[in-house]
Amino acid sequence: MKSKELSLAFSPCPNDTFAFHAMVHGLVDTHGYKFDVTLTDVEELNTAAAMGAYDICKMSYSAYFGLCDKYVMLRSGSALGFNNGPLLVHAKDYTPTKDDLKNFRIAIPGEHTTAALLLRSAFPELTDLTPVLFSDIEESVLSGTFDAGLLIHEGRFTYRSRGLKLIHDMGEYWQSKTGLPIPLGGIAIKRELIEDAAILNDILRSSIEYAFANPSASAAYVKENAQEMDPEVQRSHISLYVNDYSKDIGELGVRAVEALYNKASEIYSTTKKVSNLFIY
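Above: the chain's sequence. Below: its structure in token form.
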């Protein structure tokens, strides 16, 4: 087969480096495809995808709903599940009321993240929301720059040890409202490459299956790129965000994404209307 090179972008977080390790290092059959790989923060991925920067791109589902006329989501590669949602935290010794929160300066990990969508859904009255690099949110709250912060990724495993306290679990909010898993992010491909989508989905699924079968193979790659270097945090992160839904979104996962899509349509005027959110 003639080789074909595609640009591929995903985050340096342990769940992504664990999942993509085998395919970007040639440990599974890539069927002649080669990948020009970029690793960067999730909100930077969302912004780059809006400009069509990558052929294949990890993005927040919230961002995807504004780009689904240009991209289509693969069935493999999603970060989706129960009890893994964003956490709203602060550094004070009291539990703030909704009236208190109205006056809070809140750091969010990006305007286009699913975390921001869930926060706006749960607390539509909040207005003082500022995008901050996700790995800087804990420190920005501890320093008093912000009154509260919305944590994603490794932050949910480290906030207590740093003296932060939970205000609200956005995953619990979503699950209580819908009974569905929380769709955080997924891997999308440009619609102009739709003929490649099925085989690329199979390559990614093979990479994830390889990772599960050989969990130590990606350890160095995960450590090299992780924001949080503690091995136990890395393992907890992977265990929480890479699961059976990552191999294939499944019927329940599709329902969860469709429910979030409907919520995004209520909140954001930028949500695109398409008939197929997934490749099949």
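The longest strand covers residues 182-190.
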